[in-house]
Design a protein that fits this description.
Chain lengths: 87, 240
């Protein structure tokens, strides 16, 4: 499973845990704030990804960046995955 | 496996009393302090439910890594007790800026960041407890403790808002505000000043670390699952 798929799977799992209804389908252009997941749900998603991937871009970045779309969110994780694994 | 409670400033005073009572209540305890005191070592001897982790919480940039290590090595924590603090006094007008910054870093910023990072595993568990140790000084004030009071009042405001933020996830956030207790932190309070505090207390005595620890244990318990965003004062009635 590539990183984008893992994030999407995590997103769905978190939405269930947070009792949020995701607007389907989630695409690259989906605006995160309009995806159906609330702000606490996003905190849970970041926590879940931190446990699964072993890194948290939001804690590592020097300046605060808030991705707007799902594609931007995935891209940010891809960048930090490269930093951590060199792949 | 029993629930894990993370206690900061655990080597002495109130932190040590919280560790003792939490162990007696059947929790696993991760005691954090800069160095391990002999009292904590003694408590730990033969008790595998108590683990010690050395950390300087004033190193804010290390806290994310520290919290990540806690979850990996000890499992997702059930509770965080933010007890570590410093209480150096001084008249504000002559207090060095570095002393002000140091106090706010340890007493306010560090607990906020620890809550931020240890809250995450609690969110995934959909249950948890955050207990911040405040002080009656947050609301009464005390000559020479203005910055300390600011840090504790800040913790109380922080706790109330955070309680609203994470309640939906089954996490409670509360403060325990002890009055004057005879601990190392208040050792400079002696003589007539100390006697006057005792006299003014309706119970005629000071609260002890064990009294305040008991309030923490209540907030940790299942029975306190409907208590959030509040401050429990343990001061032998001094502020009544």
């Amino acid at each position: 499973m590539d990183l984008k798929q893992r994030i999407k799977a995590c997103l769905e799992q978190t939405a269930e845990l947070a009792n949020c209804q995701l607007l389907q389908p989630v695409t690259d252009d989906t605006v995160l704030l309009q995806s159906g997941l609330d702000s606490l749900g996003f905190a849970m998603l970041v926590a879940q990804l931190d446990e699964e991937l072993g890194f948290d871009p939001f804690s590592e970045m020097e300046i605060a960046v808030y991705p707007r779309t799902f594609a931007e969110f995935v891209q940010m994780y891809q960048q930090y995955q490269q930093k951590h694994t060199g792949v | 496996m029993s629930k894990l409670v993370v206690v900061t400033g655990a080597s002495r005073g109130l932190g040590l009393a919280i560790c003792q009572q939490a162990l007696q209540a059947g929790y696993r305890v991760l005691a954090i302090a800069r160095t391990e005191s002999s009292a904590l070592q003694q408590l730990q001897s033969g008790n595998t439910a108590l683990q010690f982790l050395a950390a300087d919480l004033a190193q804010l940039d290390q806290l994310a890594t520290l919290c990540s290590r806690i979850s990996k090595d000890y499992g997702r924590p059930y509770a965080l007790v933010n007890n570590a603090a410093m209480g150096n006094d001084g008249v504000l007008a002559t207090m060095h800026n570095s002393d002000i910054a140091q106090l706010l870093t340890l007493n306010l910023e560090a607990p906020i960041l620890l809550a931020k990072y240890l809250l995450r595993p609690m969110l995934l568990n959909q249950t948890g407890r955050i207990i911040n140790i405040s002080s009656i000084i947050a609301r009464t004030g005390f000559n020479g403790l203005s910055v300390y009071a600011a840090s504790k009042a800040g913790l109380e405001g922080f706790s109330k808002s955070l309680a609203r933020e994470v309640g939906k996830a089954g996490i409670t956030v509360n403060c325990v505000a002890p009055g004057y207790m005879q601990t190392d932190m208040t050792s400079s309070l002696q003589g007539e000043k100390l006697e006057s505090i005792k006299r003014r207390s309706p119970l005629g005595r000071l609260a002890t670390p064990d009294d305040a620890a008991a309030a923490v244990l209540y907030l940790l318990s299942e029975q306190a699952s409907a208590v959030t965003g509040t401050v429990i004062t343990v001061d032998a009635g001094s502020t009544a």
